[in-house]
Protein backbone atom coordinates (compact mmCIF):
# COMPACT_ATOMS: atom_id res chain seq x y z
CA UNK A 1 0.00 0.00 0.00
CA UNK A 2 3.02 2.28 0.47
CA UNK A 3 5.78 2.21 -2.12
CA UNK A 4 8.97 4.28 -1.91
CA UNK A 5 10.00 6.32 1.18
CA UNK A 6 9.54 8.94 2.36
CA UNK A 7 5.76 8.46 2.25
CA UNK A 8 2.83 8.16 4.60
CA UNK A 9 -0.33 6.09 4.46
CA UNK A 10 -3.48 6.37 6.51
CA UNK A 11 -6.58 4.30 7.25
CA UNK A 12 -9.82 5.26 8.98
CA UNK A 13 -11.71 2.61 10.96
CA UNK A 14 -15.28 3.70 11.59
CA UNK A 15 -18.08 1.58 13.06
CA UNK A 16 -21.64 2.26 14.23
CA UNK A 17 -21.93 5.34 16.51
CA UNK A 18 -23.06 3.25 19.50
CA UNK A 19 -20.02 0.96 19.27
CA UNK A 20 -16.32 1.16 20.08
CA UNK A 21 -13.24 -0.43 18.52
CA UNK A 22 -10.71 -2.95 19.83
CA UNK A 23 -7.61 -2.88 17.60
CA UNK A 24 -4.82 -5.49 17.51
CA UNK A 25 -1.61 -4.73 15.55
CA UNK A 26 1.36 -7.02 14.86
CA UNK A 27 4.69 -5.92 13.38
CA UNK A 28 5.99 -8.01 10.46
CA UNK A 29 9.55 -6.66 10.52
CA UNK A 30 12.18 -9.35 11.34
CA UNK A 31 13.67 -9.11 14.83
CA UNK A 32 17.21 -8.62 13.49
CA UNK A 33 16.12 -5.56 11.47
CA UNK A 34 13.55 -3.84 13.69
CA UNK A 35 16.15 -1.70 15.50
CA UNK A 36 17.05 -0.11 12.14
CA UNK A 37 13.44 0.70 11.36
CA UNK A 38 12.56 4.39 11.13
CA UNK A 39 8.83 3.92 10.49
CA UNK A 40 6.23 5.12 12.96
CA UNK A 41 2.61 4.02 13.39
CA UNK A 42 0.30 6.65 14.90
CA UNK A 43 -3.12 5.87 16.40
CA UNK A 44 -5.50 8.80 16.83
CA UNK A 45 -9.10 9.44 17.77
CA UNK A 46 -11.30 12.51 17.24
CA UNK A 47 -10.48 15.51 19.43
CA UNK A 48 -11.96 15.39 22.92
CA UNK A 49 -10.94 11.89 24.05
CA UNK A 50 -8.36 11.18 26.75
CA UNK A 51 -6.18 8.55 25.03
CA UNK A 52 -6.34 10.32 21.69
CA UNK A 53 -2.79 9.64 20.47
CA UNK A 54 -0.44 6.64 20.56
CA UNK A 55 2.87 6.14 18.70
CA UNK A 56 4.47 2.78 17.82
CA UNK A 57 8.08 2.71 16.63
CA UNK A 58 11.24 0.58 16.46
CA UNK A 59 10.71 -2.96 17.86
CA UNK A 60 7.15 -2.61 19.11
CA UNK A 61 6.24 -6.13 17.86
CA UNK A 62 2.60 -6.18 19.10
CA UNK A 63 0.08 -3.63 20.34
CA UNK A 64 -3.56 -3.60 21.48
CA UNK A 65 -5.74 -0.50 21.57
CA UNK A 66 -9.33 0.05 22.74
CA UNK A 67 -11.00 3.25 21.57
CA UNK A 68 -13.35 5.55 23.47
CA UNK A 69 -15.19 6.47 20.28
CA UNK A 70 -16.40 4.76 17.12
CA UNK A 71 -13.54 6.13 14.97
CA UNK A 72 -9.81 5.35 14.96
CA UNK A 73 -7.25 6.84 12.57
CA UNK A 74 -4.17 4.72 11.76
CA UNK A 75 -1.27 6.59 10.11
CA UNK A 76 2.05 5.07 9.04
CA UNK A 77 5.02 7.38 8.45
CA UNK A 78 7.74 5.86 6.24
CA UNK A 79 11.13 7.05 7.46
CA UNK A 80 13.70 5.05 5.48
CA UNK A 81 14.79 1.55 4.48
CA UNK A 82 15.76 -1.05 7.10
CA UNK A 83 18.40 -3.64 6.26
CA UNK A 84 15.70 -6.13 5.29
CA UNK A 85 13.50 -5.33 2.23
CA UNK A 86 10.50 -7.02 3.88
CA UNK A 87 8.63 -5.02 6.45
CA UNK A 88 5.14 -3.91 7.41
CA UNK A 89 2.44 -4.65 9.93
CA UNK A 90 -0.87 -6.47 10.12
CA UNK A 91 -3.93 -5.27 11.98
CA UNK A 92 -7.37 -6.56 12.84
CA UNK A 93 -10.19 -4.98 14.77
CA UNK A 94 -13.45 -5.83 16.52
CA UNK A 95 -16.43 -3.53 16.99
CA UNK A 96 -18.39 -4.00 20.19
CA UNK A 97 -21.37 -2.28 21.77
CA UNK A 98 -22.45 -1.31 25.30
CA UNK A 99 -22.89 -4.02 27.95
CA UNK A 100 -26.25 -5.80 28.23
CA UNK A 101 -27.76 -5.81 31.75
CA UNK A 102 -29.72 -8.91 32.75
CA UNK A 103 -33.09 -8.29 34.40
CA UNK A 104 -34.53 -11.42 36.14
CA UNK A 105 -38.08 -10.07 35.80
CA UNK A 106 -37.78 -9.77 32.05
CA UNK A 107 -36.05 -13.10 31.45
CA UNK A 108 -33.13 -13.43 29.07
CA UNK A 109 -31.82 -10.08 27.81
CA UNK A 110 -32.20 -9.15 24.19
CA UNK A 111 -28.90 -8.23 22.60
CA UNK A 112 -29.35 -5.02 20.67
CA UNK A 113 -25.80 -4.88 19.42
CA UNK A 114 -24.04 -8.15 18.73
CA UNK A 115 -20.23 -7.96 18.43
CA UNK A 116 -19.33 -7.80 14.78
CA UNK A 117 -15.75 -8.91 14.16
CA UNK A 118 -13.99 -7.45 11.15
CA UNK A 119 -10.54 -7.82 9.63
CA UNK A 120 -8.69 -4.88 8.16
CA UNK A 121 -5.53 -5.91 6.34
CA UNK A 122 -2.94 -3.25 7.19
CA UNK A 123 -0.15 -5.08 5.30
CA UNK A 124 2.30 -2.46 4.09
CA UNK A 125 5.19 -4.33 2.55
CA UNK A 126 7.78 -2.88 0.19
CA UNK A 127 10.58 -4.38 -1.94
CA UNK A 128 13.26 -2.51 -3.85
CA UNK A 129 12.48 -4.57 -6.98
CA UNK A 130 8.68 -4.43 -6.47
CA UNK A 131 8.07 -8.10 -7.31
CA UNK A 132 4.73 -9.35 -5.91
CA UNK A 133 4.79 -12.82 -4.38
CA UNK A 134 1.12 -13.22 -3.53
CA UNK A 135 -2.11 -12.85 -5.47
CA UNK A 136 -4.57 -12.80 -2.55
CA UNK A 137 -6.73 -9.68 -2.97
CA UNK A 138 -9.03 -8.21 -0.35
CA UNK A 139 -11.70 -5.53 -0.52
CA UNK A 140 -11.09 -3.26 2.48
CA UNK A 141 -13.23 -0.17 1.81
CA UNK A 142 -16.90 0.53 0.86
CA UNK A 143 -17.93 0.33 -2.79
CA UNK A 144 -18.08 4.13 -3.10
CA UNK A 145 -14.33 4.43 -2.34
CA UNK A 146 -13.32 0.89 -3.20
CA UNK A 147 -9.64 -0.02 -3.41
CA UNK A 148 -7.91 -3.39 -3.50
CA UNK A 149 -5.04 -4.46 -1.26
CA UNK A 150 -2.78 -7.48 -1.43
CA UNK A 151 -0.12 -8.93 0.81
CA UNK A 152 3.42 -9.55 -0.31
CA UNK A 153 6.56 -7.66 -1.18
CA UNK A 154 6.10 -4.49 -3.13
CA UNK A 155 2.38 -4.43 -2.38
CA UNK A 156 0.69 -1.42 -3.90
CA UNK A 157 -2.69 0.21 -3.54
CA UNK A 158 -4.71 0.17 -6.75
CA UNK A 159 -6.75 3.30 -6.03
CA UNK A 160 -5.43 6.59 -7.42
CA UNK A 161 -4.69 8.34 -4.11
CA UNK A 162 -3.93 7.69 -0.42
CA UNK A 163 -6.99 8.89 1.47
CA UNK A 164 -9.04 8.25 4.57
CA UNK A 165 -11.43 5.36 3.94
CA UNK A 166 -14.19 4.41 6.33
CA UNK A 167 -13.91 0.67 6.78
CA UNK A 168 -16.95 -1.28 7.90
CA UNK A 169 -16.83 -4.96 8.97
CA UNK A 170 -19.85 -5.67 6.78
CA UNK A 171 -18.09 -4.31 3.69
CA UNK A 172 -14.97 -6.50 4.04
CA UNK A 173 -15.41 -9.21 1.41
CA UNK A 174 -12.78 -11.53 0.00
CA UNK A 175 -12.24 -11.77 -3.73
CA UNK A 176 -10.18 -13.95 -6.06
CA UNK A 177 -8.59 -17.14 -4.79
CA UNK A 178 -8.36 -16.07 -1.13
CA UNK A 179 -9.78 -18.22 1.67
CA UNK A 180 -13.51 -17.99 2.26
CA UNK A 181 -14.88 -17.04 5.73
CA UNK A 182 -16.18 -19.84 7.91
CA UNK A 183 -19.90 -20.27 8.26
CA UNK A 184 -21.58 -18.58 11.21
CA UNK A 185 -22.83 -21.92 12.52
CA UNK A 186 -19.51 -23.79 12.45
CA UNK A 187 -17.84 -24.87 15.73
CA UNK A 188 -14.91 -22.55 15.07
CA UNK A 189 -17.28 -19.62 14.60
CA UNK A 190 -19.11 -20.48 17.83
CA UNK A 191 -15.84 -20.63 19.76
CA UNK A 192 -14.73 -17.33 18.25
CA UNK A 193 -18.05 -15.71 19.15
CA UNK A 194 -17.74 -16.97 22.74
CA UNK A 195 -14.24 -15.55 23.01
CA UNK A 196 -15.40 -12.21 21.61
CA UNK A 197 -18.25 -12.13 24.13
CA UNK A 198 -15.79 -12.78 26.97
CA UNK A 199 -13.51 -10.04 25.67
CA UNK A 200 -16.46 -7.67 25.45
CA UNK A 201 -17.44 -8.44 29.04
CA UNK A 202 -13.89 -7.84 30.28
CA UNK A 203 -13.62 -4.55 28.41
CA UNK A 204 -17.00 -3.40 29.69
CA UNK A 205 -16.01 -4.27 33.26
CA UNK A 206 -12.75 -2.39 32.82
CA UNK A 207 -14.65 0.65 31.53
CA UNK A 208 -17.06 0.53 34.49
CA UNK A 209 -14.15 0.42 36.95
CA UNK A 210 -12.56 3.41 35.23
CA UNK A 211 -15.82 5.36 35.39
CA UNK A 212 -16.17 4.57 39.11
CA UNK A 213 -12.62 5.72 39.75
CA UNK A 214 -13.22 8.99 37.90
CA UNK A 215 -16.44 9.54 39.85
CA UNK A 216 -14.60 8.99 43.14
CA UNK A 217 -11.89 11.46 42.10
CA UNK A 218 -14.59 14.00 41.24
CA UNK A 219 -16.21 13.59 44.66
CA UNK A 220 -12.85 14.00 46.41
CA UNK A 221 -12.15 17.13 44.38
CA UNK A 222 -15.51 18.60 45.38
CA UNK A 223 -14.84 17.85 49.06
CA UNK A 224 -11.43 19.48 48.81
CA UNK A 225 -12.98 22.59 47.27
CA UNK A 226 -15.53 22.78 50.09
CA UNK A 227 -12.80 22.48 52.72
CA UNK A 228 -10.80 25.23 51.02
CA UNK A 229 -13.85 27.50 51.01
CA UNK A 230 -14.46 26.86 54.71
CA UNK A 231 -10.82 27.54 55.54
CA UNK A 232 -10.93 30.75 53.51
CA UNK A 233 -14.04 31.90 55.40
CA UNK A 234 -12.40 31.18 58.75
CA UNK A 235 -9.29 33.10 57.76
CA UNK A 236 -11.44 36.04 56.69
CA UNK A 237 -13.27 36.00 60.04
CA UNK A 238 -9.96 35.88 61.93
CA UNK A 239 -8.64 38.86 59.96
CA UNK A 240 -11.80 40.87 60.71
CA UNK A 241 -11.37 40.19 64.43
From TrEMBL:
Residues 165-174, 181-194 have a biased composition (Low complexity). Residues 195-207, 215-224 have a biased composition (Basic and acidic residues). It comes from the Eukaryota. Residues 225-241 have a biased composition (Acidic residues). Residues 144-241 are annotated as: Disordered. This is CUB domain-containing protein. It comes from Etheostoma spectabile (orangethroat darter). The lineage of its organism: Eukaryota, Metazoa, Chordata, Craniata, Vertebrata.
